[in-house]
């Protein structure tokens, strides 16, 4: 099987998607724990662009771990150090 390296644009798009999903999850956790209303405009944009089905995958611990692993990997490919997970 021949594999082709992803383009820089594809990597950047994947990182942005993973970031948005992780941010959506983090914002939801803040809302749940503190009652803070969160950033409803940003949440609505992410829900519209990504879709609730994909976002709901992050509700389990496994799904959340997967998206954080993707985010870390995409950032490593972009040149960041391992472990850079700032959202």
Short description:
The protein is mostly helical and 87 residues long.
Explain what this protein looks like in three dimensions.
The chain is mainly α and about 90 residues long. It has helices spanning about 10-35, 40-50, 50-55, 60-75. It has a domain at about 40-80. The radius of gyration is 14 Å and the shape is elongated. The mean pLDDT is about 90.
Tell me what portion of residues adopts beta-strand conformation: under 5%
Describe the global form. elongated
Number of strand elements:
0
> What structural class is derived from the secondary structure elements?
mainly alpha
Summed up, the helix count is: 4
Largest sheet composition: none
Q: Kindly report the average pLDDT value.
A: 89
Give the CA-CA distance, first to last residue.
36 Å
- Which percent range fits the helix content? 55-70%
Low-confidence stretches: none
Q: Topology as H/E string?
A: HHHH
Q: What integer value in Å does the Rg equal?
A: 14 Å
Task: For this entry, give a set of tags.
elongated, mainly alpha, 87 residues
Any chance you could write out the topology, listing elements then pairs?
Elements: H1 8-34, H2 40-50, H3 52-56, H4 61-77
């Amino acid at each position: 099987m021949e594999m082709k390296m992803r383009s820089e644009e594809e990597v950047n798009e994947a990182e942005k998607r993973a970031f948005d999903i992780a941010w959506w999850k983090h914002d939801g956790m803040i809302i749940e724990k503190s009652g803070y209303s969160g950033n409803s405009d940003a949440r609505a944009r992410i829900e519209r662009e990504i879709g609730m089905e994909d976002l709901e995958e992050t509700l389990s611990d496994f799904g959340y771990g997967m998206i954080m692993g993707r985010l870390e990997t995409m950032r490593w490919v972009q040149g960041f150090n391992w472990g850079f997970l700032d959202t």
